[in-house]
């Protein structure tokens, strides 16, 4: 099938804007009703924005952290990169601590650290170029993954996605949502279902908003409706993003992903994970070793600031889960498609 993807049509949303002396983040806590950028003038403001989900999504928080290091560099005097690296390390540690599960954050900081320690007196310019490169490479990876992932989907398919994996979560176009955009453009996907994604409603607020702007009308479902949707034969693929893909293919993603994978296998549907290679963590052997972020239980007590839970209740709020590799039919990165991922296939694709 010809590649007929009009990328410009899908490239209107940018969650992260570098102005030359500050970072502007599209405030994802307020979408879709308020479209407002918040300005970060220093790296601690970026770390706070990552923690607060002002900017969110694995690739996006890596990109934001890269610019956070550039902002931190403005406060440091150093003759060369090695000296600067030592002075910037505390700020980098604070950025890294903002969220634990998505490996893209640590990956971007390691990349910034690596170029910095090799830099001479031009270390500031080196950092700025690297932050820009991280963003540009992410956009290119998403476009490539869109084409690779869409090619797996037979024409006339229905798909279900979870959380938000679109332009808002990346430098642009999206990971799983990029595959969905490409699949719709190529006539492979007829119907898109988006799960609400409690408690932050990334699906209901962000994915629906993004797709509507492309002229794609998703159908929203309650998270609890997913198994019934699968049983009624309306979807053939579940397509999700990832926050960390381990050396054996086990994948951490937004809470609720694991139960979708179990239900998909039960109903004989296919399950696709789409993520750039910056999400692959070959140093973590399996999902058991992933630090799953637990957020404030208060996030579960209401919707949009209105309390819905009975008073005095306790709550447990893990915000990611791990899908075992056995339940994944394909992992799509910009380097290619890994079908039925396991340790050997991951090693062949990404090295030891
Ligand atoms: O808590 P969030 O909104 O940052 O979680 C985001 C997800 O889990 C996404 O599915 C994942 O980061 C992939 S985004 C391309």
Automatic annotation (TrEMBL):
Keyword Magnesium: no
Pathway terms, separated by semicolons: Amino-acid biosynthesis; L-methionine biosynthesis via salvage pathway; L-methionine from S-methyl-5-thio-alpha-D-ribose 1-phosphate: step 1/6
Positions of substrate binding: 56-58, 99, 202, 253-254
SUPFAM superfamilies reported for this sequence: NagB/RpiA/CoA transferase-like
A GO molecular-function descriptor: S-methyl-5-thioribose-1-phosphate isomerase activity
UniProt-annotated catalytic positions: 243 (proton donor)
Keyword line: Amino-acid biosynthesis, Isomerase, Methionine biosynthesis
Catalytic EC class: isomerase
Coiled-coil residue spans: none
Role, per record: Catalyzes the interconversion of methylthioribose-1-phosphate (MTR-1-P) into methylthioribulose-1-phosphate (MTRu-1-P).
HAMAP family per the UniProt record, alphabetical: Salvage_MtnA
Protein name according to UniProt: Methylthioribose-1-phosphate isomerase
Biological source species: Lysobacter niastensis
């Amino acid at each position: 099938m010809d590649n007929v993807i009009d990328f410009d049509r899908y490239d209107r949303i940018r969650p992260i804007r570098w102005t030359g002396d500050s970072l502007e983040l599209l405030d994802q806590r307020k979408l879709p009703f308020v479209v407002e950028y918040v300005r970060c003038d220093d790296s601690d403001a970026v770390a706070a924005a990552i923690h607060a989900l002002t900017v969110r999504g694995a690739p996006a928080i890596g990109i934001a952290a890269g610019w956070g290091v550039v902002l931190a560099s403005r406060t440091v005097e150093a003759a060369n990169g090695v000296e600067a690296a030592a002075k910037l390390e505390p700020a980098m540690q604070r950025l890294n601590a903002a969220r634990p599960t998505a490996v893209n954050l640590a990956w971007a900081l390691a990349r910034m650290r690596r170029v910095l320690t090799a830099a001479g007196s031009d270390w500031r310019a080196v950092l700025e170029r690297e932050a820009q490169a991280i963003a540009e490479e992410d956009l290119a990876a998403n476009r490539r993954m869109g084409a690779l992932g869409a090619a797996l989907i037979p024409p006339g398919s229905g798909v279900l996605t979870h959380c938000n994996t679109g332009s808002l979560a990346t430098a642009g176009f999206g990971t799983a949502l990029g595959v969905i955009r490409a699949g719709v453009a190529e006539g492979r996907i007829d119907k898109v279902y988006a799960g609400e994604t409690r408690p932050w409603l990334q699906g209901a607020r962000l994915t629906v908003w993004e797709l509507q702007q492309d002229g794609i009308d998703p159908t929203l479902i309650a998270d609890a409706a997913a198994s019934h949707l699968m049983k009624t034969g309306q979807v053939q693929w579940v397509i999700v993003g990832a926050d960390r893909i381990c050396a054996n293919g086990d994948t951490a993603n937004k809470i609720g992903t694991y139960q979708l994978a179990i239900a998909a296998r039960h109903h004989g549907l296919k399950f696709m994970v789409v993520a750039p290679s910056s999400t692959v963590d070959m140093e973590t052997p399996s999902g058991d070793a992933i630090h799953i972020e637990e957020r404030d239980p208060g996030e579960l007590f209401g919707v949009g600031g209105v309390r819905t839970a009975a008073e005095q209740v306790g709550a447990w709020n893990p915000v990611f889960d791990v899908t075992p590799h056995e339940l994944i039919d394909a992992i799509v990165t910009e380097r290619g498609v890994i079908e039925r991922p396991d340790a050997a296939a991951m090693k062949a694709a990404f090295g030891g």
